[in-house]
Q: What sequence folds into this?
């Protein structure tokens, strides 16, 4: 079986991405497998291609109800029959779809996990010829995951009892080693069938901006990226509404999304963004999991997410087409307080709250580190011996580096003199010499380090401790009340064996540079092809990226195809796309070339 030929004919791609073919071959052999691939890494091909080859139907279980319609529309657009069944489908439509599925005409059926545990639905499902079970966003099955949903575990015993011994494929983009091990145990996946392609997104540039005027930064950024599609994540509904109203008044084509809006408005705002009727959407973290928009060029975080997993999933919404994209985190330490409040108010048990606090601490370390940002994330997910990316804001930071060994030794010494029994807040107040921590039973005022930083602020001292922790000179005990501990690296500093350097703090402004600026393709033709794509999409009532991605359009601008054979050679063009759109796009390219010669 020539899998490359099938890939080109059905999906328009010439070659597989790393890990895709290996997973597909395991699935076609009827095995149980798991793929750990980054967001935008091409996970869906790993079950979509086998579905075109295997007999019967491929069952895709996904917690992302809002994404199902987009996935189904995209598959039907390339001539692969697919449908979905979830709570959004009315009963009369559901009955009609079920009868259609029974005829064997459907190759992929998308369902929500809640459907599986419904006895009536499961009885119907067990009568189908199911060749493959694909579980998307599989991390929700693990209690160690960042988005654990215990109810989803209930469907696994039922799925294992389905007749026909179908192949299994679990897929996720954000799984630590602990989560991977948990999933392998739950789904009975042998170690040799776990395919990890790495979490690195080479086309994604990560940036962190400290202490900026957030509204001014975003204003400058949107102005300098006016023709690009982007997402702004904010922590609170109030922030979303304020940003939406402000930028709408400035003439920005912007939408908003949060749980306080009606279902109808949320749906409309998401559709407007998907269909390029708006350029930007500002949203809480409830947005993004249910979209597959390929041409998002940037993600701005107005406030810090609560976990590395959530953060990396959210920034993963950018650059899904493989073209350059960037993610900018606007960091203010005070934003962490909102997460702490939500954690304390959550309904989870103490262990659950503790795990969230530990994850939040790791996220704060990421925001404070001066090492490579991509390397920090890859280390978190267990990838060893990774090299600096060379393009994140830390790797490219050219601010003056100053030696702060003396201040570091003072701070580390204070932790030791306080017997390594206290948290950051108490250590900070002792270093600054606050009256409220003096003259009580602790007798902190007798320490030689009491008030040693009296000439600098609490905020500056707190950030120094954050810096020392993020860069491994201090470590946190974790737990409900984390305390600061001296690390081996910090001990070397106290002994004078290691020096500590830090970059000077300076004001930062948004760069006025378009992410997609690239002289390697004809930008004027690209704009004409974008307009053609948009008009075709509106006629059909689908999102523009479902016709062709930006990457495919740019490939057309480079190769200038003038016949069917040349058009089919464009990356992202398969036989169905050639039949549907080849004539129109070739005609537009020929017209453009004639106008150039006039």
A:
């Amino acid at each position: 079986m020539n899998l490359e030929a099938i890939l080109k004919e059905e999906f328009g791609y010439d070659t597989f991405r790393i890990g895709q073919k290996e997973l597909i071959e395991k699935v076609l052999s009827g095995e149980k497998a798991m793929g750990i691939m980054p967001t935008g890494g091409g996970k869906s091909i790993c079950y979509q291609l086998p579905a075109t080859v295997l007999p019967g139907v491929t069952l895709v279980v996904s917690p992302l109800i809002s994404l199902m319609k987009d996935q189904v529309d995209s598959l039907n657009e390339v001539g692969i029959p697919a449908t979905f069944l979830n709570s959004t489908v009315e009963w009369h439509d559901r009955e009609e779809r079920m009868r259609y599925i029974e005829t064997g005409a459907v190759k992929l059926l998308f369902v929500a996990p809640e459907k599986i545990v419904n006895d009536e639905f499961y009885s119907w499902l067990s009568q189908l010829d199911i060749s493959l079970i694909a579980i998307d966003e599989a991390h929700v099955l693990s209690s160690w995951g960042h988005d654990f949903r215990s109810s989803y575990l209930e469907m696994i015993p039922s799925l294992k009892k389905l007749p026909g011994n179908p192949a299994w494929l679990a897929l996720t983009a954000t799984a630590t080693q602990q989560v991977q091990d948990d999933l392998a145990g739950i789904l009975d996946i042998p170690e040799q069938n776990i395919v990890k392609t790495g979490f690195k997104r080479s086309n994604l540039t990560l940036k962190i901006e400290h202490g900026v005027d957030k509204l001014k930064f975003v204003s400058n950024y949107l102005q300098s990226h006016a023709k690009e599609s982007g997402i702004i994540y904010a922590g609170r509904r109030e922030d979303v509404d304020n940003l939406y109203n402000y930028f709408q008044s400035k003439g920005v084509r912007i939408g908003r999304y949060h749980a306080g809006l009606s279902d109808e408005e949320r749906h409309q705002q998401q559709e407007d963004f998907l269909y390029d009727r708006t350029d930007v959407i500002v949203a809480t973290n409830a947005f993004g999991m249910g979209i597959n928009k390929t041409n998002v060029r940037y993600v701005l975080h107005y406030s810090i997410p609560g976990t590395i997993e959530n953060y990396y999933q959210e920034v993963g919404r950018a650059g899904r087409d493989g073209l350059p994209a960037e993610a900018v985190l606007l960091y203010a330490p005070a934003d962490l307080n909102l997460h702490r409040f939500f954690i304390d108010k959550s309904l989870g048990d103490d262990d659950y709250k503790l795990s969230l606090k530990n994850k939040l601490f790791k996220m704060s370390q990421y925001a404070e580190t001066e090492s490579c940002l991509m390397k920090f994330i890859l280390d978190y997910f267990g990838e060893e011996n990774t090299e600096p990316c060379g393009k994140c804001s830390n790797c490219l930071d050219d601010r003056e580096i100053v030696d702060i060994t003396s201040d570091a030794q003072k701070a580390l010494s204070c932790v030791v003199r306080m017997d390594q029994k206290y948290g950051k807040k108490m250590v900070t107040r002792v270093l600054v010499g606050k009256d409220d921590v003096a003259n009580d039973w602790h007798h902190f005022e007798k320490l030689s380090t009491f008030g040693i930083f009296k000439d600098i602020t609490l905020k500056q001292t707190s950030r120094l401790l954050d810096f020392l922790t993020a860069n491994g000179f201090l470590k946190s005990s974790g737990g409900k009340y984390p305390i600061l501990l001296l690390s081996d690296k910090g001990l070397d500093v106290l002994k004078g064996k290691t020096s500590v350097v830090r970059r000077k703090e300076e004001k930062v402004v948004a760069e006025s540079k378009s992410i997609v600026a690239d002289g390697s393709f004809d930008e004027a033709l690209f704009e004409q092809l974008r307009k053609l794509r948009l008009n075709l999409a509106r006629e059909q009532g689908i999102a523009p990226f479902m016709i062709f991605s930006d990457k495919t359009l740019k490939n057309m601008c480079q190769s200038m195809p003038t016949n069917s054979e040349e058009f089919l050679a464009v990356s992202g063009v398969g036989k169905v796309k050639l039949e549907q759109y080849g004539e129109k796009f070739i005609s537009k390219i020929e017209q453009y070339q004639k106008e150039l010669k006039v």
In short: The two ends are 49 Å apart (CA to CA). The chain has four domains: 3-196, 204-380, 401-503, 523-597. The first strand starts at residue 32 and ends at 36.
